[in-house]
User: Fold Guanine/hypoxanthine permease PbuG from Sporosarcina luteola.
Amino acid sequence: MKKYFEFDKLGTNYRREIIGGLTTFLAMAYILAVNPLMLSLDAVPDLPDAMRMDKGAVFVATALAAAVGSLFMGLIARYPIGLAPGMGLNAFFAFSVVLGYGIPWQTALTGVLFSGLIFIILSLTGLREAIINAIPAQLKYAVGAGIGLFITFLGLQNANIIVAEPNTLVTLGDLSAGPTLLAVFGLFVTVIMMVRKIKGAIFYGMIMTTVLGMIVSLIDIPTKIVDKVPDVSPTFGAAFESLLHDPASLMTTQFLVIVITFLFVDFFDTAGTLVAVATQAGLMKDDKLPRAGRALLADSMATVTGAIFGTSTTTSYVESTAGVAAGARTGFSSIIIGLLFLLSLFFSPLLFIITPEVTAPALIIVGVLMVSALGNIEWNKFEIAVPAFFVIISMPLTYSIATGIAIGFIFYPITMLFSGRRKEIHPIMYGLFVIFILYFIFIK
Assistant:
């Protein structure tokens, strides 16, 4: 096992990998509660039951998709990255496709399935890997730093340290509120342990925050530990219904746009996450991502698996950087993540005590670590600084990793071309320039 995952080469051990896997799992476990509520349109009143997905079935589908995807990533690609149904993509699935377009959720699952199958084809041909390796090192650093700012912003929101404000868009929240104070406590404790160079500080910080939350009655003490696994049959295989019984519904421009959107956002969210995690873990070689094809194939297979079980697009999670910060360096931590998602099927009462306030400090700290990539960017060269800056600033401001990448990648060929550095532009970057322009015109 140690030899396969190259423990000695990467300077890691079972303890670090297990703590890293646990940390990533806790940081992304919220999806088990959020995804069923999102896909069932629970917050929207007075909807026909036919438009709502079964919450219990979606919970099981979410856990299984995350488990299978993380195991694929660990065993095939050997990267310390957890996978699960993606936030943003599930909102697009539920609120744009089902609620906005009026498309049955079964047909929407077919769109997810198609996008995953296309991904597999692209991965097997090596095109996805070629695209990632064609991205200049400076933009890769920018992507990593941008994701750092994005997840820090997400963590601050989860803790209600930053809240919405109609006049200024955002403002400082109520720091005297109990849940917010709990998150602040977690942040201070984690920072102190990080400064003291305590390994696993992020994980231990979340444990201490959870215990304090239960002591002061901000986090519920679970009434039971084990519960039965809900029935997945309401969603299992539903992705094939339109394909078998109503193929005409798939021959529309609207359905094509749905598939392209799933495809586009998953591709670039995954690409950004892979680069960011690999950079932070020190796994990049000559500015290229080793085994990128395997990582992308694992992500593609996870999307197909999730669609069959009955959930929206499965993708790589930026929260994996929390596990890397806690010590994870290999795919063994991803195996731990996958096994924990399987166990969560039986221990859901314990899982739901983990609140956003508990995971918020981890996201904020990881953001601090990731923005260190800013030091590698050649800010004194304006043709590099402009696209890099737009990648970084656009991610938190547009609340989208993919949009940040798109804006920066549009500017890169322009600034490089007019600065006389045409020969340094990879042909694939011109292709991405055109694709992103079309994306903003016809999809975004």
Summary: The CA atoms of residues 103 and 132 lie 33 Å apart.
